[in-house]
Design goal:
By secondary structure, this protein is mostly beta strands. The chain contains two helices and seven strands. Strand 3 and strand 4 form a beta hairpin. The protein starts with a strand and ends in a 15-residue tail after the last helix.
Length: 113
């Protein structure tokens, strides 16, 4: 995930790393991350458009930022396996429950619906 200045549509060299687990019924990414509300959980991310909008203050000036999906990265010696061709379709609520992750209330970019 990469953070972009909304006004200029330029990246600011910061973002978020997450691990792809599967897709949901809408073909959005279901990913595992470790810093959502100080816990490990599965979250849904859109393939296109902003997943999260926030304000960043630099030298007392406010900037509206958008976090968007950027790319997949794999090690250079990664061997494509059967998982790559059969990535599961899952429910975000079911996968969090399956792994014992209690998500009481999600923030706007952390929807579990």
């Amino acid at each position: 995930m990469t953070n972009y200045y909304k006004e200029t549509n330029t990246p600011d060299a910061s973002g978020h790393i997450t691990f792809l687990y599967g897709f949901d019924k809408n073909n959005d990414y279901i990913c595992l991350g470790g810093n959502q509300g100080s816990k490990l959980k599965f979250s849904r991310y859109k393939r296109e458009g902003a997943n999260y909008t926030f304000t960043k203050i630099i030298k007392k000036k406010k900037y509206i930022m958008e976090q968007r999906f950027n790319c997949f990265l794999v090690p250079i010696d990664y061997k494509i396996g059967s998982y790559d061709e059969n990535i599961p379709v899952v429910s975000i609520n079911e996968i969090n429950r399956k792994h014992g992750i209690n998500v009481k209330k999600a923030s706007s970019n952390e929807s579990t619906h």
